[in-house]
């Protein structure tokens, strides 16, 4: 195949444009470095009317918003999903890992839940507490200044709660709870479950004069056209360009390998342009991988050379290992008190206004790590699926289910906004035996060897999922609700989601002080190759009962400061 | 690879599209397809647009089947002052979904056939020629699931009617007239400032003062945020 080389040399090539890549682009370009961003998907701007889905109605879609082509529905802003045509992945044995990818500028930050939680001091030192997994080589105090800076740059609402392991930050004020959330507060408190305002990167108050303020449409998953929620494009890359940053954007460009020289140092990347299917090479002094935990591991493992026979940065054989996702479990409930409720606009922000952080001590439990609870419900915008099984809830009143005619109108109205749900999102244990690796027998449509997954939950996660279900049931009862569906039992792992389904996969290039047992150092720099960094969630040693995005960005900023410093010392 | 996957792989791949949707035989003229694409503009990627175009270019049901679909939907939700099944374009949605989710196609068609068979046996007429009392006497046999059975254990007729009712209901209540009838008030820019007082009163609820003190003061939402060094908001 012909390979086209670009003779221009960049200071830094950044692979991927999501949370980590976006942050690195901003910090590095504003320090005056010449940057190339190489993104596997197309250009995307939430304000572009041709791409925008915000404020559309269900009837603007011929399938009324159904999830046939996008897994979270027609209006969700993730171009991709767990299954992408032409980009397969495989499993070893019984493994059922589900790998979500979003191919577009900004990546998954365009549709994510905006739940922006700092890790707490204990989250970096879990092995010291329960003997499982490993401690991070850094602690909360190392990252705290960067969390503070991320809060102020991007904006996150929340409240001061003085909880040791859920540290406070620089918060915008949270919105008031919705009606079903008041029911949840009541039920959770009765069950002695801590409940407090949620922490989402949505602008309930102006943070600068460039971005808009939330206008409460509940559609953050569609990416905000006035930039009132966090997406890497709208909040990091576009502002960096506006500030005069020298950024060249290569879109629809799938990185295949990091290229290296005789000394084993990185010289740039090779990528395949999806439009002309031609391979190109770009040169740089430094390569920053931010392609997502599994994609970055894949690129490293595919970057084999004489100097790096086991893949780049993989002398430890740890690249791809310790892959872990958050656990998930959920339950729905019917609140009979809300039957025939008054209808008013309660869209609010694009997510819950209240949540429960982990509230117990695992010392007294049969599983080692915690989970938080997210709440949903209310009078949402009708879309495909609304009106399905319209009067199933009749059974709780001894009334016949089914039928046809005008009575269905009454039923539709009666039960609208009466169902709530809660979801647990918990910490799993990072294990060497859960990993992704290169499948020797399969390539994607661009000819690049694909990933093969091997993942199995342990009893730690299964026991935690059981605790979630017991807790949900108790809270539902205390809310005056009726739990819907059957409670999942041991035969269903107590409703534990498949790994990858919560889309918090981390740990594949983990951080550590010992090059024999970790891939990167505390500055996310490969132990083996000093001019390659990884700023997605790959370097996470453990995931915590939080969401990864805020920590990805705080670490990416810290790493970017280190890179700038190394450039000043002429170390590249 | 199931049919859904192979359909998608063809739609998104490079193989010709002619062999697709084998059950959906009749074609649609290009002008109508262009109109549909224009009518539904909702932020599609080029590949997604191609897929929609493919679905618009095929017809899944005959004209008689479409009339029958309209007839049944109108029995499920008769017209009222807000509008009708046809204003809500419910038959068009059902037709589209039968292509978009191919596993719907066969059961939907079989159910339509079965309905005509039953009306022929009972009244010697196709369903659409029966009077409303006759039509209802047929629907009554399938409109009520057996409460002692799970949904997968219900009879074929009951399963078909449940699917049809679901599509009709969702079609109506996601349409302009249906949303208006339901009274959904959102999807519009606003400044959300809590549950209305009369609603709180109705449920005997109130906001805690301590909680409320943490919440947004909407009169200051446009003042740029500033904090003291301890993270207390000062604007």
Description:
The complex is a heterodimer of chains A (572) and B (235). By secondary structure, chain A is of the alpha/beta class. Chain A has one domain: FAD/NAD(P)-binding domain (3-Layer(bba) Sandwich). Helices cover 20% and strands 18% of the residues of chain A. Chain A has nine helices and 18 strands. In chain A, strands 1, 2, 7, 8, 9, 10 and 18 form a seven-stranded mixed sheet that branches. Chain A has a six-stranded antiparallel sheet with strand order 6-12-13-14-11-17, with helices on one face. In chain A, strands 4-16-15 form a three-stranded mixed sheet, with helices on one face. In chain A, helix 1 (19-30) links the parallel strand 1 and strand 2. The longest helix of chain A has 20 residues, at 459-478. In chain A, 59% of the residues are buried. With 235 residues, chain B is an all-alpha fold. Chain B has one domain. Chain B contains eleven helices and no strands. Chain B has helices at 3-12, 30-39, 46-56, 63-76, 90-100, 105-123, 132-139, 156-173, 176-182, 197-202, 209-214. Chain B is elongated, with a radius of gyration of 25 Å. Mean pLDDT of chain B is 91; it is low at 1-20. The chains are: A alpha/beta (572), B mainly alpha (235). Chains A and B meet through helix 4 and helix 7 of A and helix 1, helix 3, helix 5, helix 8 and helix 9 of B.
Count interface residues per chain for the largest interface.
A-B, 93 and 85 residues
Structural class of chain B: mainly alpha
Quote the average pLDDT of chain B.
91
Tell me how many strands of chain A there are: 18
Q: What is the count of β-strands of chain B?
A: 0
Largest sheet of chain B: none
Q: Please give the domain count of chain A.
A: 1
The rounded distance between the terminal residues' Cα atoms of chain B is 58 Å
Report the CATH C-level class of chain A.
Answer: Alpha Beta
Give the SSE string of chain A: EHEEEEHHHEHEEEEHEEEHEEEHEEH
**Name of the CATH superfamily of chain A:** FAD/NAD(P)-binding domain
CATH fold field value of chain A: FAD/NAD(P)-binding domain
**N/C terminus separation of chain A:** 31 Å
Strand content of chain A: 15-25%
Task: Specify the overall morphology of chain A.
Answer: globular
**Multimerization state:** heterodimer
């Amino acid at each position: 195949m012909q390979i086209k080389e670009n003779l221009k040399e960049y200071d830094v090539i950044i692979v991927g444009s999501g949370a980590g890549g976006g942050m690195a682009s901003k910090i590095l370009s504003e320090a005056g470095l010449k940057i190339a961003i190489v993104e596997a998907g197309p250009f995307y701007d939430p304000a572009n009317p041709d791409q925008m889905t915000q404020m559309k109605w269900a009837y603007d879609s011929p399938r009324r918003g159904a999830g046939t082509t996008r897994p979270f529905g027609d209006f969700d802003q993730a171009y991709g999903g767990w299954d992408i045509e032409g980009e397969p992945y495989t499993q070893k044995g019984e493994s059922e890992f589900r790998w979500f990818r979003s191919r577009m500028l900004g990546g998954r930050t365009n549709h994510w839940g905006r739940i922006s939680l700092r890790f707490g001091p204990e989250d970096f030192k879990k092995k010291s507490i329960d003997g499982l997994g490993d401690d991070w080589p850094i602690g909360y105090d190392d990252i705290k200044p960067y969390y503070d800076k991320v809060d102020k740059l991007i904006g996150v609402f929340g409240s001061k709660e003085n909880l040791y392991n859920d540290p406070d930050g620089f918060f915008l004020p949270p919105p008031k709870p919705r009606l079903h959330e008041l029911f949840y507060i009541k039920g959770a408190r009765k069950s002695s479950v801590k409940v407090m305002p949620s922490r989402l990167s949505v602008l309930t108050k102006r943070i600068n004069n460039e971005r808009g303020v939330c206008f409460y449409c509940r559609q953050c998953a569609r990416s905000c056209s006035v930039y009132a929620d966090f997406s890497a494009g709208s909040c990091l890359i576009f502002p960096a360009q506006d500030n005069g940053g020298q950024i060249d954007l290569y879109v629809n460009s799938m990185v295949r390998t990091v290229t290296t020289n005789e000394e084993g140092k990185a010289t740039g990347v090779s990528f395949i342009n999806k439009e002309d299917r031609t391979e190109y090479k770009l040169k740089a002094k430094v390569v920053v991988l931010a392609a997502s935990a599994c994609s970055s591991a894949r690129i490293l493992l595919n970057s084999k050379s004489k100097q790096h026979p086991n893949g780049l940065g993989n002398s430890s054989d740890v690249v791809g290992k310790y892959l872990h996702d958050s656990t998930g479990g959920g339950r729905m409930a019917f609140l009979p008190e809300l039957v025939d409720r008054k209808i008013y606009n309660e869209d609010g922000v694009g997510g819950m206004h209240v949540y429960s952080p982990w509230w117990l001590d695992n010392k007294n439990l049969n599983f080692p790590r915690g989970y938080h609870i997210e709440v949903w419900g209310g009078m949402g915008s009708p879309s495909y699926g609304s009106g399905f099984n319209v009067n199933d809830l009749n059974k709780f009143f001894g009334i016949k289910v089914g039928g046809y005619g005008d009575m269905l109108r009454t039923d539709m109205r009666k039960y609208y906004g009466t169902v709530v749900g809660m979801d647990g999102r918990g910490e799993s244990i990072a294990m060497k035996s859960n990993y992704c690796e290169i499948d020797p027998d399969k390539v994607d449509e661009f000819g690049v060897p694909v990933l093969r997954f091997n993942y199995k939950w342990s009893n730690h996660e299964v026991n935690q999922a059981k605790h979630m279900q017991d807790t949900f049931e108790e809270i539902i009862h205390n809310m005056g609700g009726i739990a819907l569906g059957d409670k999942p039992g041991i035969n269903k792992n107590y409703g534990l989601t498949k790994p990858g389904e919560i889309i918090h996969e981390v740990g594949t290039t983990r951080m550590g002080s010992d090059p024999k047992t970790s891939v990167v150092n505390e500055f996310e720099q490969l132990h083996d190759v000093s001019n390659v960094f990884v700023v997605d969630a790959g370097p996470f040693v453990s995931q915590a009962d939080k969401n990864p995005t805020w920590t990805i960005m705080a670490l990416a900023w810290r790493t970017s400061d280190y890179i700038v410093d190394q450039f000043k010392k002429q170390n590249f | 690879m199931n049919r859904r996957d192979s359909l998608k792989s063809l739609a998104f791949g490079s193989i010709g599209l002619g062999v697709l949707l084998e059950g959906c035989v009749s074609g649609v003229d290009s002008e109508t397809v262009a109109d549909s694409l224009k009518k539904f503009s909702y932020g599609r990627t080029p590949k997604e647009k191609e897929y929609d175009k493919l679905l618009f270019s095929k017809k899944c049901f005959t004209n008689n089947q479409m009339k029958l679909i309209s007839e049944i939907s109108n029995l499920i939700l008769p017209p009222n002052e807000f509008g009708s099944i046809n204003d809500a374009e419910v038959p068009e949605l059902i037709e589209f979904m039968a292509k978009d989710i191919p596993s719907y196609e066969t059961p939907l068609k079989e159910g339509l056939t079965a309905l005509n068979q039953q009306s022929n046996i009972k009244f010697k007429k196709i369903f659409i020629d029966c009077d409303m009392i006759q039509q209802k006497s047929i629907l009554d046999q399938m409109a009520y699931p057996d409460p002692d059975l799970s949904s997968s254990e219900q009879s074929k007729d009951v399963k078909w009617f449940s699917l049809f009712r679901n599509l009709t209901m969702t079609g109506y209540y996601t349409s302009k007239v249906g949303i208006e009838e339901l009274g959904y008030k959102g999807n519009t820019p606003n400044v959300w400032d809590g549950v209305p007082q009369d609603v709180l009163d109705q449920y005997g609820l109130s906001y805690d003062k301590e909680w409320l003190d943490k919440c947004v003061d909407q009169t200051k939402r446009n003042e740029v945020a500033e904090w003291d060094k301890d993270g207390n908001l000062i604007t």
